[in-house]
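Summary for the lay section of the report: proteins are chains of building blocks that fold into shapes. Here we show the chain for Branched-chain amino acid ABC transporter permease and then a coded description of the shape we predicted for it.
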Amino acid sequence: MALAEMKHEAFLKIGDPVFAQQLMNGLMLGGIYALVAVSFTLTIGILNFLNFSIPALFMLGGVVSCALLAAGVPAVGAAAGALAATGLASLLVERCTFRWLSTSDPHIPLVSSLGFLIFFENLVLVYFGSDAVGYPSPFARASVKVSDLTVSLPQTGGFLLALVLVALCYVLLKYTKLGRGLRSIAESPAIAEMLGVKVGWTVSSVYLVSGLLAGIGGILFGISYLQVSWDMGSEVALKGVSAMVLGGMGNVWGAVLGALIIAVIEVMTIAYLNSEAVNVFVYGLLLVIIAFCPRGLLGDRVKMAERM
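The coded shape description reads as follows.
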């Protein structure tokens, strides 16, 4: 994986410039994890539904933008095309897994969304092949030196964009008519419909927003690490779900906090130990925190809809 390039032979010292560099690298990666974690949080917190297709939507964002850039499409057009594809795929998932199957057994929509994950991944596998593909980023490896730190401009821009998108998502949920409709659906879809909320349109909006966040995460991953592959969403999705649980189920900012913690631990483990130990430390920490804090770091006794 591209993160292996971050490995350094050094001792862990807080004042060490290597430590500061890896801390910054971890925060940059955390921005991508945060987008995926918030994508999961939206469907879990509002619809009580774990959308297994989100890893595929993340992958589509990276792969479609890569294909368009390779075909000579300008960067803005490639990003727009990738997001259009991701949005349409997300709406297709909503129609086939949630709306049409809402009256079926609860496990049926889950299996259906898992089917979409497998379908999208294998569709890209046929087109791209099993090997990772270089991402023709318009920004290449643009960076600047700040004291002893090397600051990657694409990664920094991606991190800031991720925070802005999460903040906008929070404002959307908290202060808009759509957000009020979403919170009422989280309480009771039947009562929300009686109160005049357009449940079908509102649920479609949740899927669209979560899909676009995942797609943007995939584009930022390609720009930051200069490669994409058919299975790029799987590992990132595991970290995103872990971040959601670590921060507190249904809490948008908890998902961001969890994502940053997991990303920093991952990068530090690669830098000072080895890449094989990453999952031991990341998921070991998750188990320890959940054992002592079952509701997550920012979880409490308030309902998910209120915590948003």
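Put simply, here is one thing we learned. The radius of gyration is 19 Å.
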